[in-house]
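Sanity check record (used in CI):
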Amino acid sequence: MNAATLNSSRLWAYLQLLRPANIVTAWADILAGFAASGCIVFISLSSSDLISLAWLLLATTGLYGGGIVFNDVFDAEIDAIERPERPIPSGRASRQGASILGGLLLSAGILAASQVSWLSATLGCGIAAAAVLYDAYSKHNPIFGPLNMGLCRGGNLMLGVSAVSPMVSNYWFLALIPIVYIAAITTLSRGEVHGGKSSTGGITLILIGMVIAALLGLSLLENYHLLAVLPFVILLAVRVLLPFIKAVSQPSPENIRTAVRAGVLSLIVLDATVAAGFASLPYGLLILCLLPISIALSQIFAVT
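Expected output for Polyprenyltransferase:
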């Protein structure tokens, strides 16, 4: 193998560590939070709003990318047994190199968030800390692990809301929706390698039901439009419930991996639902356009 081919192979390995399909779902969090912040898209979106949105999208790219990279860093020994094809255990990427990459990405994410406001920077620091805590310690805890991962996604949604800082205190409860949703996916994902348990699957379905109820319940807010939300809720239910029910009834590793993959990618549908409720149906459809991009990337790069 010549030097050019070797360098190309290493670059591809580090790109695999980032799991690009997942990063696209993080962009959807920011766009949904941006809608909830009250920034009016398609009508009077100012240049300063666009600049803030760009910084926040860059911030979540660094924060989420760094968190995913550190996940592989801390799981190197386990992956060597269960997933030897992953970049680090296969030797295509070094653990030290991945650690440096993860640190740079997290730092860049916090720095980008600080360009919006101190509150955004604080949220960025919290997301980075929660991601590393999950990767290093909590992911193997059956209770704290799912909640910790959900906290990362809930914080990411609030990062989008921080485009207008005062709105974070007004809509802090929106973070509970991705927290519960991710807790459901993380709980189910524990059976990806060896299969799952019916009791775990039952808890997962209950949590998903709570998420759907919450999305509909937000219609109690004056500025949340239920009619715009309904098509997205139906799509979310179809995309998530069908594979989840199959994984619960037949908890094989393959069915669980399929359900988890559908759940992760459907974060975009979840965010599109929230965005349509707060902004408009067209804005929700705009975010939904990220779904085929994420699905296409998932055919090339691993999602879990």
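The chain has one domain: 15-298. If this sentence no longer matches the regenerated tokens, the check is flagged for review.
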